[in-house]
Amino acid sequence: MPTWNDEDIPPFGYETCYQVMQTIIKSKKPIVVHNTKGVGSAMAFVGLEYTSRMMEYHEEYTYKDAFGKLIEKRYCSFQNACQIGWMHVGSIYFTSRNHNLDMYMFNQMNNVFFEVHRTYSGVPNNESGVKWF
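The line above is the sequence of Tyrosine-protein phosphatase domain-containing protein; the predicted structure tokens follow.
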């Protein structure tokens, strides 16, 4: 996905990420997912599958639990809160696609996320070095 800026969310939708991930999962050969810094966009992409599967395998997990396990694997793996929010919505997309669920919940969350992203309303203050984008 060479058009995805390291410090941003992708310029394409979740379906593209889902299709690329399905190709990776089906591959008989190892595939490395990386970018120039090894964080940010690479972790957001890998995190889509990781967090959605963690919540699937551990039904008691919330997104916060699954995300906590992900960042245990790679501390400081995100460059901004926007990437984390994008991945949160995307994990719902992946779960919905993996189980042929109605996309209602995803659509609701996605609309809220992109409204926040577009208007910058409801974005947390830049505290402790955490920035939106």
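Note on the example: The longest helix spans residues 81-98. Residues 36-119 form one domain.
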